[in-house]
Every structure is written in C-alpha cells, then in structure tokens.
Write a structure and sequence with these properties.
Residues 32-198 form the N-acetyltransferase domain. It comes from Streptomyces marincola. The protein is α+β, with helices and mostly antiparallel strands. It has helices at residues 2-10, 39-52, 55-58, 70-83, 138-152, 167-176, and strands at 13-18, 21-26, 32-36, 92-98, 106-115, 122-129, 157-162, 179-182, 187-192. The protein is built from six helices and nine strands, in the order αβββαααβββαβαββ. A hairpin with a 6-residue loop joins strand 5 (106-115) and strand 6 (122-129). Helix 2 (39-52) runs antiparallel to helix 4 and helix 5 packs across helix 6. The radius of gyration is 18 Å and the shape is globular. The structure holds coenzyme A (COA). The site of coenzyme A (COA) has 21 residues, from strand 6, helix 5, strand 7 and helix 6. Residues 57, 126-129, 134-140, 160, 162, 166-169, 171-172, 175 line the site of coenzyme A.
Length: 198
Amino acid sequence: MAEAERLLRAAGFALTTTGDALLVTRRFRTDVDLRPLDENLLSRLLDAAVEDADPREVMPAVAGPAGWTRERRAAFLRFHRTRSLSAHPVESTYAVLLAGPAGGPRVVGAARLAPVPEQPLTVEAGLWLRRQVRGEGLGSAVLRQLAGLARAGGAAHMVASTTPENVASQRLLSALCTTVTRREDAVIARLALGDAWS
Ligand SMILES: CC(C)(COP(=O)(O)OP(=O)(O)OC[C@H]1O[C@@H](n2cnc3c(N)ncnc32)[C@H](O)[C@@H]1OP(=O)(O)O)[C@@H](O)C(=O)NCCC(=O)NCCS
C-alpha cells in the first residue's frame, strides 16, 4: 500500500485519508492562466513561438525554407489579426500565461476556441505550448480551462483533433474527452460539456 501511495503521488495524484477510505484526486496546475489575446500579448506570443516552437505546430503552412523566416513571422501575426483580433472575430484565442518566481507571468503558448459551423453549440479547441514547458501537466490544465470557457460561452460540446503520430496530444485529449475516434489520418476527440464544467 505504501508503495502504491508513493507511485500515485509521483504521478501527480493527491491522497487524502477520510475515515477508512483513501481519497485519490488528480492535482492540476494552478499557476497557468488564459488571457484573451491582444496586440501586446500577440507580440510576446510570436517571441515565444520563434524562440521555442516549430512553425508547423503553431500556424498554417507557409511555403518556403524551414524555420521562422520573415514571411512566416509576418504570416503568424496576420493569422491572429485576421482571426481572433479582427473586427469580426472568427474564433477566440488566449495567451497561455505561466506564473513565475519573478518578473510577472510569461507567455508560453496559445489556446483557441472556434465555432464549428456545421455542428450547432460545438466549438473546436486547439493549443500549443513552447517546448520548454511541455510534459509538465500544463497542457491538461489549459484544456480544462478551455472547456470551462467553452461552457461559459454557451457551447454544449468541445471537439479537438490531432494526428495519429502526436502521442502527447492524444494522451491529453483521451484523459479529458468523453469519446475519442481514431481514423487513419486523424484522431478526433469530443467532450460533452455537462454541468461539471459550469
Ligand atoms: C500537445 C501539448 C499541448 C501537450 O501539452 P503538455 O503540457 O506537454 O501535456 P501534459 O504535460 O499536460 O501531458 C498530457 C498527457 O500527455 C502525456 N505526454 C506529454 N508529453 C508526452 C510525450 N512527449 N510523449 C508521450 N506522452 C506525453 C503526459 O504523460 C500526459 O498523459 P497522462 O495524463 O496519461 O499522464 C504540447 O505537447 C504541445 O504544445 N505540442 C505541440 C502542439 C500540438 O501538438 N498541439 C496539439 C494539441 S490538440
């Protein structure tokens, strides 16, 4: 039992003894926050992406040599200015802010919610984080916050898709979503936003 408790704690679970029972709950990061993107955050977001992410992870494909070319940086800004920052936004984008020991929160990635036109009350979620902070439970915390925002915005379902090769993304989605459909070219996850997300 002691060994099981040690392993559970190491895996990020909180253990509480209540009478004869041992309550096991999953701990989520509380040092992460989503703030609606604005011009100031957009410039910090571009810095985070250029420093520590691959363009293919964070924006639609742009022709040309690999890496953060001048054209790709411009396309990144244009992408956000024509989607969430336009006069008629087609999606909501949030900067992922990570609290630090000093100097205020850092922008470490982006998360978005976009209505799915052919599916009423359904939004599509997407997110990316800079490499430095991946694999530390941040993605799970962000996805949960997105689900809360989607529900608060009136959505009944949240969907997300990834590629069969993207193991981290699949694990992230499988842990939260109610159904996960695996196709040859894509993995599609769906979460019913019930009362728990209010
Ligand atoms: C996908 C992404 C957002 C995940 O965020 P993250 O903070 O690294 O994820 P977490 O640390 O919360 O881990 C989520 C799950 O993935 C697993 N995981 C994380 N990194 C992994 C890796 N490199 N390989 C395998 N599993 C991994 C974790 O163990 C965890 O699984 P568990 O809940 O079963 O323990 C991040 O890797 C990323 O930004 N990738 C590039 C962009 C991208 O692929 N976006 C698609 C999102 S739909």
